[in-house]
Amino acid sequence: xxxxxxxxxxxxxxxxxxxxxxxxxxxxxxxxxxxxxxxxxxxxxxxxxxxxxxxxxxxxxxxxxxxxxxxxxxxxxxxxxxxxxxxxxxxxxxxxxxxxxxxxxxxxxxxxxxxxxxxxxxxxxxxxxxxxxxxxxxxxxxxxxxxxxxxxxxxxxxxxxxxxxxxxxxxxxxxxxxxxxxxxxxxxxxxxxxxxxxxxxxxxxxxxxxxxxxxxxxxxxxxxxxxxxxxxxxxxxxxxxxxxxxxxxxxxxxx
Length: 255
Known about the structure:
It is a single chain. Helix content is 73%, strand content 0%. By secondary structure, it is mainly alpha-helical. The chain folds into two domains: 1-172, no CATH class; 173-255, no CATH class.
């Protein structure tokens, strides 16, 4: 217990910027695993009536274990992680940011409610999985339907969580680390939330255009002495807006 408290304390001594990046990273991991679960459930639903739980159910349990902490591979462990499952880590970090007013938004309580709802749904999923392992064929079929419905609920709640948490990004509008994180993970965010999700979000932060964002990132990282990162930053930002490459080329020619 003392070791866990020490690790938790270390976790919350990290900067708000880094903690917020952990929230976003854990959101991505959970949401991606929910999508993978839904694909497996679609396969299970189209299988002939099984006489025992199908092999896909084991794969499903592995994905859910990452989210809920029961079984499956673990994410990369950091010194400040206490080994708990992704959903609990997400909950702890969000609550800390909210309580310390790092996530100041009108819907902070709704963020907490979303996480509570995800815990409730996860408990229902865990209960259903236990039934499936030892159930009769008829009950297995019923439980598979319940499991599919619960996953749909979890997916809808995670989408709602994403809508709420992105409001917190406005607090970090001038934090180059959070902005670069969004740029670097653009493909994963877009795959879950729709094409140009990250681009549209960043344009809200920088309404003059993506070029304004690029200038800001270059300035901040150059001031910190990370000039070696500037080409990588440019390449990543250009992926957000291909027309930016033409404008940069024109400027280079003029100079």
